[in-house]
Write the structure tokens for this entry.
Amino acid sequence: LKKHPVALVEDGPSAPTEYAMNRPRREAAVGGSAVGGGTFRDAGGGTLDLHPLRHFALGTPGSGAAGTQPFALTVSPSTLLVMDLHAHLCTNEVIGFLGGGYDPVTKTIVVERAFPGRGQASGRDVEMDAVAAVELQAQVEAQNLKVVGWYHSHPVFEPIPSGVDIDNQLNYQRLFRDEATGVEPFVGFIVGPYDLRMPTQVSEVTAFVAQQRRGRGGDEELPFEVHYGVTTDAPGPLALSAMAAVVVSNKATAGRVNPTELWRPFTTLVDTKPVGGPCTKLAKLRASLLARLPAGIGEIDSDEILDGVAKEMQAAWGIDLGYDKPKPKP
């Protein structure tokens, strides 16, 4: 497994990262914090309360030791590709389910695929209506998988949970609770594609669960970061088909992005200083998806996958991205 590199610390807020230190004060609303949670303005000018992630105690995930992560988590590159692509397609929040399996003996969740859904979205939050949720769960189960998580996007701000996200996560966990072991094998992912404060073009991705803990003021509902490993499985035809399908299905979605639009006037941030030339949303998408591909995939195959996404956009959305149009069949 390729491990997701995160340093574990005892229960408490995360230490500031380079991403956190890049947050400009202009984004913080009055009374908000610019580091590790607080009140932030969304793309529509509204405010959103974000809650800093806590960390589980050191120890093997799923070991049952006090305060440790309740389960181990493994994710396929295909899952990350579809989630990241879906998040890039819309300026509103998007949502979907995660399909895979849970082993109650080893207390391990394996996420094999992402299933993009239909959400009722605003600029600040997204929820899946009951009918769409039932239909999407049926799609997961039709592939002989179980729903083991959900994902959504924070288009232009940090991918840490809001109060609504925490409530949704707790509801899902109760619904999928394993009564035999007491474990709630359900994980939430948040993808942040277009935050101008990110150090690179690669989207920020957070996995979390929520727990009720007793504090001085009574019971608190707190989000905890979940650490995960990434397999080295190359995306196959099923994953590539899913990527094409999510592009097509978002052809007429509200808030669809313009891929030729400028994301930001520089490429990266190094020590909080802008470096490199202007970056379009399409260039940003390509760089982020490239980072999700396993190291064993060659440059030619990588370009074919990334060009395939762009060509699908050009054909399905009726926009010119500079690719030759397919010749009509005789």
Observations:
- The longest helix spans residues 299-317.
- The first strand starts at residue 2 and ends at 3.
- Confidence is low (pLDDT under 50) at residues 1-14, 23-47.
- The helical segments are 18-21, 77-88, 130-142, 163-175, 237-249, 281-292, 299-317.
